[in-house]
From TrEMBL:
One of its GO terms (cellular component) is plasma membrane. PROSITE patterns: COPPER_AMINE_OXID_1, COPPER_AMINE_OXID_2. It comes from the Eukaryota. Residues 292-542, 578-666 form the Copper amine oxidase catalytic domain. This is Amine oxidase. The modification 2',4',5'-topaquinone is found at residue 452. Its cofactor is Cu cation.
Length: 711
């Protein structure tokens, strides 16, 4: 069997396409490859040319229009893919998933289309959700156009407050040049289906503006497709609520408003910047380069398009615009162990005293976290030796957008041996020493969803273990400090409250262990107190292994799934994070546990994970999917300034072979070291056995640091 090792259950962890030429014939993994720029353009051109769709360009124009929001690969059905991969069947039809906003009609909605065949599309069909659920127009993700209109509406509405803002902050919205105010928007956008009321946190636009709230939060209603009907419905300033802009402005004019006066931001050493300041007490050097990763004899992995091979591992990968990294056809030793392993959703739930803080429940698939894969810096985000891959996304744009160095692949020394043993002879010597260096191959990308940066890793170990891991870093989502706010976090700077929040990350694990017909069994440690069979009158307390087959999705009597204590107050349809682990029978109409629409309509979303398990199907000898939730509670503190650090803010899980092999498969590695004394017990002459050549010399990357940053 293949053991799914969960963070909480087993405490195992505390805490695209290449630009190179394609192979001929194409690698089978290419059926899972992201769409090329040419394919993205072909889909857009085809759909824009269909008169019945009436599509307009994404940029510019009114909100009440029909526009193409997203184009990405529509993965083939599993049965077709396996027939091709395993039995030499026909290559699956290559199709795109297109998301269309139909805003220029009597009943606006969002519709998803399957477009194909690629590379020359000639037809499309409507893609439905389970149960035939429709996507209302109000559930659509935000677009650049709507943000531009939102900013214009906010600037116009804030004009009466310009004297207040200038006096209190030194910044403003009107003719502000380099002393402008900006905003961060909060979601969900309301309190029920159909609403689009967004709380905006007003901030000074300086480096790290997320840490510079002004004390003003504005509720702007932008549900109507006509921005002329948008209006400010409520404000919160320095702990007090106001029914409108005029009420707040008049309170300031009368001199009855307690102003939250902010100090002038310094030109250098701003607390929210990365500029070095202070000194380490030890005086050890920091102006020189530290330890680096090197490849003495070159790369030990192979990358062909979207096919990655390393030791016994082989897999296909893609970076989907909607939700990020997705692995397919994961094999070890030539045998498939998982059909799919993918990120589904990243959620952050906040608490606070201000309306923006208490309303914040971020669901990052709704912010297209897969398309937030900005450039990785060589030597910082990934080692200098890494292979970097570009990505192309067509999201809220009128053509493919090139994201340079969006992914990286590298072999990582773990700093601890994979296994080792010193065999003591207890006479001052040893019988032998043997060890195998610890290394793993890392596939990495990042998602910068406004303030937070998520670092997504899949690690492949030579002993058949796969690790999924995410680090959280970037700026905390912070609000203006008031004494009442201390109940919900920490005062991390003079006017800044770091709000308490929970991070939850959801993964899909479609395991295929020795075929697609699998069953699920849990193992618990129990204890027994028994008579000692070899000593009359004595007793032995010892552990034993309790195995329990899980026969149905809901478990049954005494078999309920272990729920996540970090996620007790979720909106009822958003149930995927409630479970550490849930196992369901696989269905093509249940491809994902969340969607890009859940953020703006969490009350009645088109995808509800609870429906996956509510039918309580049998899960014995079936094609099964494990849905895994990992997460952590974050109570911000002063050391989160300027950014949350990665140590202590990482979570993940392992897939581990469990009686799947006859022995540790890493014995196939030629990297061990074995030392045996030739003259025991003196041990003055040693036999040292190695199967790798000596290092050729210094391991440094010859090129200086470079960075582009455009996309």
């Amino acid at each position: 069997m293949w053991l799914l090792g969960l963070l909480w259950a087993l405490a195992l962890l505390v805490t695209v396409a290449s630009s190179g030429p394609s192979a001929d014939p194409p690698d089978p993994a290419s059926i899972f490859a992201d769409l090329s720029p040419e394919e993205l353009r072909a889909v857009r051109t085809f759909l824009m040319g269909r008169p019945e769709l009436g599509l307009s360009p994404s940029q510019g124009g009114p909100l009440a229009k029909n526009s193409l929001f997203l184009v990405e690969l529509l993965p083939p059905k599993k049965r077709s893919a396996l027939r091709f991969l395993e039995h030499g069947g026909a290559r699956p039809r290559r199709e795109a998933r297109a998301v269309v906003f139909f805003g220029a009609q009597a009943e606006p909605n969002v519709t998803e289309l399957a477009v194909g065949p690629l590379p020359r599309p000639s037809s499309y069909r409507v893609l439905g959700f389970k149960g035939g659920r429709a996507v209302p127009f109000s559930a659509r993700p935000m677009t650049r156009l709507e943000y531009e209109l939102l900013h214009e509406a906010l600037v116009a509405a804030m004009a009466p407050l310009e004297p207040l803002l200038r006096e209190a902050t030194g910044f403003g919205f009107q003719n502000c040049s380099k002393r402008c105010l900006t905003f961060s928007d909060i979601a969900p956008r309301g309190l029920g289906p159909g609403e689009r009321r967004t709380w905006l946190v007003i901030q000074r636009f300086v480096e790290g503006y997320f840490l510079h709230p002004t004390g003003l939060e504005v509720l702007l209603d932008h549900r109507d497709p006509d921005p002329r009907r948008w209006a400010v419905r409520q404000l919160w300033y320095n702990g007090r609520y106001f029914g409108g802009v005029r009420e707040l402005a008049e309170s300031h004019a009368r001199g009855t408003l307690p102003l939250a006066r902010l100090p002038e931001p310094p030109t250098r050493h701003l607390f929210s910047s990365y500029e070095p300041r202070g000194r380490f007490a030890s005086g050890t050097p920091t102006k020189v380069h530290g330890a680096k990763v090197c490849e003495p004899q070159g790369r030990r992995y192979r990358l062909r398009g979207n096919r990655l091979e390393y030791g016994g591992w082989s897999l296909a990968f893609r970076l989907r615009s909607s939700a990020g990294l997705q692995l397919f056809d994961v094999r070890f030793g030539g045998e498939r162990v998982a059909y799919e392993l993918s990120v589904q959703e990243a959620i952050a739930f906040y608490g606070g005293h201000s309306p923006a803080a208490m309303q914040t429940k971020y669901m990052d698939a709704g912010w297209a976290m897969g398309a937030s894969s900005y450039e990785l810096a060589r030597g910082v985000d990934c080692p200098e030796t890494a292979t970097f891959l570009d990505a192309h996304h067509l999201l809220d744009a009128d053509g493919p957008v090139h994201f340079r160095h969006a992914l990286c692949v590298f072999e990582l020394p773990m700093g601890v041996p994979l296994r080792r043993h010193f065999d003591n002879d207890f006479q001052g010597g040893f019988h032998f020493y043997a060890g195998l260096e610890g290394r793993a191959l890392v596939l990495r990308t990042t998602s910068t969803v406004y303030n937070y940066d998520y670092i997504w890793d899949f690690l492949l170990y030579p002993n058949g273990v796969l690790e999924a891991k995410v680090h959280a870093t970037g700026y905390i989502h912070a609000t203006f400090y008031t004494p009442e706010g201390r109940r919900y976090g920490s005062r991390v700077h003079s006017h800044l409250l770091g709000n308490i929040h929970t991070h939850l990350v959801h993964y899909k694990v479609d395991l295929d262990v020795a075929g697609s017909g699998n069953s699920f069994e849990t193992m618990d440690i129990r204890f027994e107190n028994i008579s000692n069979p070899w000593s009359t009158g004595a007793r032995v307390v010892q552990p034993w292994l309790h195995r329990e087959p899980r026969r149905r999705e809901l478990g049954g009597p005494g078999q309920g799934w272990d729920r996540d204590p970090l996620a007790p107050g979720l909106t009822p349809p958003l149930t995927c994070p409630r479970y550490h682990l849930a196992v369901t029978r696989r269905h093509e109409n249940e491809p994902s546990s969340s969607s890009i629409y859940t953020q703006n309509d969490p009350w009645d979303p088109p995808v509800t994970f609870e429906s996956f398990i509510r039918d309580n199907e049998t899960i014995e000898d079936q094609d099964l999917v494990a849905w895994v939730t990992v997460g952590f509670l974050h109570v911000p503190h002063a050391e989160d300034i300027p950014n949350t650090a990665t140590p202590g803010n990482a979570v993940g899980f392992f897939l581990r072979p469990f009686n799947f092999f006859n022995e540790d498969p890493s014995v196939a590695s030629r990297a061990p070291v074995i030392v045996r004394p030739l003259d025991p017990p003196t041990c003055s002459r040693l036999e040292i056995r190695r199967w790798t050549p000596p290092s050729p010399g210094a391991c440094v990357h010859p090129e200086p640091f470079t960075y582009n940053g455009t996309y």
